[in-house]
Amino acid sequence: MKLTRLNLTNFRNYSSASILLNDRMNIFLGDNAQGKTNLLESIIILSLTKSHRVLNSPNIIMFNKNKCKIQGVVKKNKVVSKLEVHLSNLEKKLFVNSNNVNKVADYISNLNVIVFTPDDLEIVKGSPNIRRNLLNMQLSQISKSYLNTYNEYNKILKTRNEYLKVLFNNSIADKNYLDILTDKLIEKAIIIYKKRKEYVDKINNSIDKNFQYIFNDSGLNVKYLNNIDIESYEEEEIRKKLREKLNKNYSRELQYGMTMYGPHRDDLLFHYKGSDLKIYGSQGQQKIAILCFKLSEIPIFKEYSGFYPVLLLDDIFSELDIKKRNKILKLVNEFSIQSIITTTDLKNISRKNLEDAFIYEVKNAKIKRK
């Protein structure tokens, strides 16, 4: 999977831009606040229909403009697709080959991306919700069945929470309806638990190998944490344990008006030499750990979807020594995928690591191939 062309109109500080991209490495070089990160953000929106930085499109649209447009040409083997995202203050429109796509679920997966940004430190340091969102975003790109199941789970969860409040305020309300909702919720939860656990297990197949190569140390792994004490992840065990937890905590759920157990309460734990990386790891170790997590996803995307994703690395070299910079570029090159990288400098980077790269200079939202 390759993004061969990117066109921007009234996006952030770009009134107009058109970029032809290399099938392998693309490096956007320039000082801070010139528009490098905006380029990566536009590709993320083209892929996922939303930004990793803001929730509302008015912040994305160029000042004094009413709408913006992101267009990209994607090549999958010999199949070429034209993707478009149109954003205005009122709506978002998605197009594939000029055909309007109404559902996000039908649009996602046309362009798969794996993204690393400086804000990704929050994956280790932030709330469980950030780590759950990471799993959901990645699995949704490579498994439409997961995306549909997750959406259905959230609808049932919302209805169940609302009905818990009805039961709390109305003693004669029918509890049988809650039991029906609970059964439906559990069946969707089983699929989510199993898919997430499978994904994390695959991450652990290579995350420590990547960590050893870049950081010259070992002992990194990721643990998938559920709050219902599942061990085997067999379907019947998940069903039994989740039902037991929900039944046992029925009174508490009534009191709080929310479902207290299920995959919406999952978490990930980054372990380094048996300790919680969030507490005992340095910021450098945390950054490399997250990068290794993202690099470990590359073969999984290929296995699930049949195509390698596009790798987006924003400000990847900051706070890293020369040796680690070169190791990261060498590892990225070994995957033989398309990568799009932003950085403020390429000092002491090995020429061998850059021999297949297109290098662009970004200055005041103007892009020039060097």
Write the layout of secondary structure elements.
Elements: E1 2-11, E2 14-20, E3 25-29, H1 36-48, E4 67-76, E5 79-88, E6 92-96, E7 99-101, H2 104-107, E8 113-116, H3 121-125, H4 128-142, H5 144-169, H6 175-204, H7 207-215, E9 220-225, H8 235-248, H9 250-256, E10 267-272, E11 275-276, H10 277-280, H11 283-305, E12 310-313, H12 322-334, E13 339-343, H13 351-354, E14 358-363, E15 366-369
Parallel strand pairs: 3-13, 3-14, 8-12, 12-13
Antiparallel strand pairs: 1-2, 1-4, 4-5, 5-6, 6-7, 9-10, 10-11, 14-15
Helix pairs in contact: 4-5, 5-6, 5-9, 6-8, 6-11, 7-11, 7-12
> Mean pLDDT, nearest integer?
93
CATH architectural grouping of the largest domain: Up-down Bundle
For the largest sheet, list the strands in their spatial order: 2-1-4-5-6-7
Largest sheet: 6 strands, antiparallel
- CATH class term of the largest domain: Mainly Alpha
- Helical amount among residues, as a percent range? 40-55%
Number of strands: 15
Distance between the termini: 25 Å
Point out poorly predicted stretches: none
**In sequence order, what are the helices and strands, one letter per element?**
EEEHEEEEHEHHHHHEHHEEHHEHEHEE
Backbone structural class: alpha/beta
Explain this structure to me?
There is one protein chain. The protein has 370 residues and is an alpha/beta fold. It folds into two domains: 1-112 and 307-370, Rossmann fold (3-Layer(aba) Sandwich), CATH 3.40.50; 123-303, Glutathione S-transferase Yfyf (Class Pi), Chain A, domain 2. Helix content is 45%, strand content 24%. It is built from 13 helices and 15 strands. The chain has a six-stranded antiparallel β-sheet with strand order 2-1-4-5-6-7. Strand 10 (267-272) and strand 11 (275-276) form a beta hairpin. The longest helix is centred in the middle third of the chain and has 30 residues, at 175-204. The protein is globular and about 70 Å long. The two termini are 25 Å apart. The model has no long low-confidence stretch (mean pLDDT 93).
